[in-house]
Amino acid sequence: MIFLKTRVTKIALLSFFSLFFSFSIYAQEGKQLFQQNCQTCHALDKDLTGPALRGFKERGPWGDQKELYKWIHNPASYLQGNAYAKALQQKYGAIMQAFPQLTEKQIDAITDYIVSAPAAGQKTDGGDGAGAAANQQGEGNGSLIFGVVSIILAIIALILMQVNNNLKKLSDDKEGINRPEQVPFWRNKVYIALIALLLFVVGGYYVAKGAIGLGRQQGYQPEQPIYYSHKVHAGVNQINCLYCHGSAWESKHAAIPSLNVCMNCHKAISTYEKGPKLYNEEGNEINGTAEIQKLYKYAGYTPGKPWDPSKAKSPEWVKIHNLPDHVYFNHAQHVNAGKVACQTCHGNIQEMDVVKQVSELSMGWCINCHRETKVNFFNGKDSTGNKFYSIYEKFHNDVNAGKMDSVKVADIGGLECQKCHY
């Protein structure tokens, strides 16, 4: 029969919508997974804490996807029998964190993103901020075009279904087959049910996604009263994070440094001359010397004259990293006791001019870290490690007996609710 059956057409329409949403979600999944799990230590085109990832399939054993699964799921175990992985550890001074929670399909999605991601363009006069804005605009335009094309295809599919029904009616009339009048598609209960189901699924997905993201500020990058470049201070001048945020070593809060800390250096440094050019997020060049003058105004300092700190007025810095009030987080416990690097949570701060929130800082993100991070256990043989953990005698005995190869934060209560929630 030359005409398509109505049931087959409906199935084809359902298959189209299923394929559309599956493709849409999968197309974004690799990039999202990369941002959530990889970009703290890796970039595509330059070495960070770990090596640049573009072209990694041509290096070492990673051309075999199964070898990549083994490496990502358990780097410590894989390291023992692979010379290339050992060389990476020696070069970068650390071993990659394990990601057993990533499925093979998710690893494939990350791999596809790394392989297919466009190469980084040349920097323009607008600086990194303008480039990032252009990339975001390009991604937004691509998503808009994809959405418009999908809607057009859906409309065409509905029109074809209606045409098929009309042709079928003409055929039946010609053959003398008496069939009831066709119900218009806008009154057809099957169509209405399909559209309602589709809207329910799509709406539920975006509502759930939005609800999960409530209170999260990943990517938040506010403008500050003084343009302070961490790239210049922590990167170019190699100022240790704890020089300005010393309370992170011994208290719950990292705290914002007082003007006394700033003026320790800037009583002698009044101009910005030898550092790299500074740009804001709109691509406009920043006058570093003028920003130092803003600092002097807040501090009530006149170059060449004695400084009276009592006249200082602190700038109204905008807090970037916020946690819910019911969440307990202690910087000293992580930085001092746990030896966690600042970049683990805050990203490559030494490469940022304007600081932004890199990690999502969600409960799942923290729990995954606790599951994978090894405790800095005290070793009595060479007196290294944190002596606090010497009280965990059972774990020491299990490690010595070979029952455990290491102790994770989760093993000592890192997943208990009351550890982080009041």
Automatic annotation (TrEMBL):
Q: Which UniProt keywords apply?
A: Heme, Iron, Membrane, Metal-binding, Signal, Transmembrane, Transmembrane helix
In this protein, which residues make up the domain named Cytochrome c? 25-118
InterPro entries (UniProt xref): Cyt_c-like_dom, Cyt_c-like_dom_sf, Multihaem_cyt_sf
Which residues are listed as membrane-spanning? 144-161, 190-208
State the superkingdom: Bacteria
Signal sequence span is 1-27
Q: What is this protein called?
A: C-type cytochrome
